[in-house]
Amino acid sequence: MDRGLKAPLSPNExxxxxxxxxxxxxxxxxxxxDVEQLSRLALIDRQGKRLILTDLGRRRLAAMPGPHFRGxxxxxxxxxxxxxxxxxxxxx
Length: 92
Known about the structure:
Radius of gyration: 14 Å
Shape: globular
CATH class: Mainly Alpha
CATH topology: Arc Repressor Mutant, subunit A
Strand order of the largest sheet: 1-2
Number of helices: 5
Number of strands: 2
CATH architecture: Orthogonal Bundle
């Protein structure tokens, strides 16, 4: 199980992991080879028609550099709010 925390991920696999975590892509919109590799590493799991992060996947994501969001971005308004907060110009 530690392999999922230590195995190197390609940039595309990292993007796929983030997309699954944030809920911003449907499984059919993701690269099948990336989904397969992340599943093999026990970082993601299929739950019905959705892909979700496993506990190990959440730990891996938390260890990755870059901004991290809590919970899926399940609608356009949620996505817009996150991007607004990221690119908000400082006041003053």
